[in-house]
Write a structure and sequence with these properties.
It is a single chain. By secondary structure, the protein is mainly alpha-helical. The protein is built from nine helices and no strands. It is globular. It starts with 13 loop residues before the first helix and ends with a helix. Helix 3 runs antiparallel to helix 8, helix 7 packs parallel to helix 9 and helix 8 runs antiparallel to helix 9.
């Protein structure tokens, strides 16, 4: 009933390409803002924001729409000190997410089927972890073991390429609670390092927030993109630490 923006290769799926748009959006916008093309830098950044946001919308991905609004809301966390304004911003983000999802051109049956399948996969993933709490069912084991762990034998309507449709659930199912703890710890440390950069490089924190929400509905656990982002955040913050230490030593001398 409606066309969804798709790509090729490992990002062929509409949801996957939308998540990558959200990952890069803060970097593109702030890169353009920091150029010396004023006042055109603002026009270019607004144009880039509009283009990437439109591409996300064209994918008709509900999770990515929520992720986009959360990415924008995270900027308020960085820049707004008033708790009332922050709360108001998040309320508008939630209302905006619901409103935009209602405006999507996808059929009700398509949306309902997608939602029910995800719930089935998430329940199966949790069942795998509960019954194999230490090491899970092993890498790439979700698809092989899905039918055996599907609650009530309900496998949904996706008969091939079954996955957890959540990077967090996939880690939990295939690596157990230890693997999930390590995975979450890596993201938490990156978020802490991004927070240290919030005054000069807010795009790192915004990208982490937006992309982490997006992959909550996608299986990006074994793709390179999460680890490229995490590596960029952590390495950049470490370089800032080295630069600060050098400047302090230079002043002391």
């Amino acid at each position: 009933e409606s066309e969804r923006l798709v790509s090729v290769g490992i990002l062929e799926n509409s949801n996957d390409i939308a998540a990558i748009f959200i990952l890069v959006l803060p970097f593109v916008v702030f890169f353009l803002l920091k150029t010396k093309l004023r006042p055109f830098s603002w026009l270019l950044s607004l144009g880039a924001f509009g283009l990437l946001s439109n591409l996300v919308w064209q994918t008709q991905s509900r999770g990515s729409v929520i992720a986009l609004l959360m990415c924008l809301s995270s900027y308020l966390v960085l820049k707004v000190k008033s708790k009332k304004i922050l709360l108001l911003g998040f309320v508008f983000a939630i209302i905006g997410s619901v409103g935009m999802i209602q405006m999507m051109k996808r059929s009700a049956s398509d949306l309902e089927g997608s939602t029910s399948n995800r719930i089935i996969f998430w329940k199966a993933g949790a069942n795998m972890a509960i019954r194999n709490p230490v090491f899970g069912v092993g890498f790439w084991g979700f698809n092989r073991n899905f039918q055996a762990y599907a609650i009530g034998g309900n496998t949904g309507t996706e008969k091939t390429n079954m996955t957890a449709h959540s990077s967090w659930v996939l880690v939990l199912a295939e690596s157990g609670f230890i693997g999930l703890f390590l995975f979450v710890s890596l993201w938490a440390y990156a978020a802490y390092r991004a927070w240290l950069l919030r005054n000069t490089e807010p795009e790192y924190f915004m990208s982490l927030v937006g992309y982490s929400v997006a992959i909550s509905f996608l299986s990006h656990t074994y793709l390179l993109f999460p680890y490229i982002l995490l590596g960029l955040v952590i390495s950049h913050s470490k370089l800032d630490d080295v630069s600060l230490d050098y400047n302090l030593e230079t002043k002391a001398l």
